[in-house]
């Protein structure tokens, strides 16, 4: 498989180059030159396939022989080494729990896959690679955990000061070793803008920077895995399948749409966002106009200029009509989010985190338009990651899993910066 830059079709690279570069030299996101089709038999027999086999079959065409079969199978196995339960919430509605990995958010899947690929791919590189990543909350922890101790790779994580939860902050600032945290006086979009600028800065060419955000194909593509696992878990269904994805940078939903393009029978997607509604407005007006980022309870989705949206447009050949046929986008307020958490807790006896609540609200809103469907929303983080919000709201104590208790004892280590110049100075040192 080759990948081209969405800014220039003539820039074509291998999986290895795309992964190690992160962003194309012209700032474009890499996109597969062709969309492989999985055979019919794969879907007919999916119930009898292991999750490792499913993951391998899905990712194989995208990696080609740049990682040998035994290594790739091992990478997939380690990536998916936890559970992905599908929990029924009400009639025809399910939560797909993606938070059973080491940092309790779905980003573990992409980060683990990417880190393990880098272990193989960066090995033959004489130079050290520096992974530079901006986080709105969960990416930092997942990437830090995934890359911790990986030889030949330094990790630098930028996060917006005071805008991630205390557990999220601990997860990305306490590990040490090859993991460095930078606290930015600004928003996630500011962090992301600095990262993008660093990639294009000629003075930093020697630092061999790459990205571990979902703009990196090695982090974006493996997110397809759990859409297939969801399909396997559902078994035979007699209604169209609708998936609601709480979205911020739109990497997760875009992976789902790619899975659909490979043949996975998902009838419709819902992009559920918080007050950061750039895509919702785009779907209504065909005008893409990011605004300043708003701080919300679902902080990992506080993104107003989602990087991956261009990939979604590319998947649909920039045809808005084709896009509208399979995507609805809705925005919800914090107030609605809190009410949903309460409602699901008291009426359905299920605890969701603020991101999952937004996903659930997406299904509910879609229901006003269509009733006959099987709905799944992605529960993207463990509720315990947001104790400030949930314990107060529901007046309950959430039991903190052991691995988080350990992290809370760690000591925060971060460097504070306010502008790009300071980041640059840090990277040059
Ligand atoms: C990152 C994140 C999201 C948003 O995912 P995107 O791929 O950026 O759209 C949603 N929920 C949680 C918990 C996250 O960490």
Automatic annotation (TrEMBL):
Residues forming the Tryptophan synthase beta chain-like PALP domain are: 96-367
Instruction: Give the EC number(s) listed in the UniProt record.
Output: 4.2.3.1
Q: Which Pfam families match?
A: PALP, Thr_synth_N
Mind telling me which InterPro entries this protein's record contains?
Ser/Thr_deHydtase_PyrdxlP-BS, Thr_synth_N, Thr_synth_N_sf, Thr_synthase-like, Threonine_Synthase, TrpB-like_PALP, TrpB-like_PALP_sf
Coiled-coil residue spans: none
**What biological-process GO terms show up in the record?**
threonine biosynthetic process
Q: Can you state which reaction this protein catalyses?
A: O-phospho-L-homoserine + H2O = L-threonine + phosphate
Q: In which pathway does it act?
A: Amino-acid biosynthesis; L-threonine biosynthesis; L-threonine from L-aspartate: step 5/5
Q: Which GO terms describe its molecular function?
A: pyridoxal phosphate binding; threonine synthase activity
Q: Could you list this entry's UniProt keywords, alphabetically sorted.
A: Amino-acid biosynthesis, Lyase, Pyridoxal phosphate, Threonine biosynthesis
Q: What sequence ranges are listed for the domain Threonine synthase N-terminal?
A: 2-79
Q: Lyase: present as a keyword of the record?
A: yes
Give yes or no: UniProt keyword Transcription: no
Q: Which residues carry this modification: N6-(pyridoxal phosphate)lysine?
A: 107
Q: Which cofactor does it need?
A: pyridoxal 5'-phosphate
Q: Which PANTHER family match?
A: THREONINE SYNTHASE FAMILY MEMBER, THREONINE SYNTHASE-LIKE 2
- The family this protein is said to belong to: Belongs to the threonine synthase family.
- Which protein is depicted? Threonine synthase
Native organism: Myroides albus
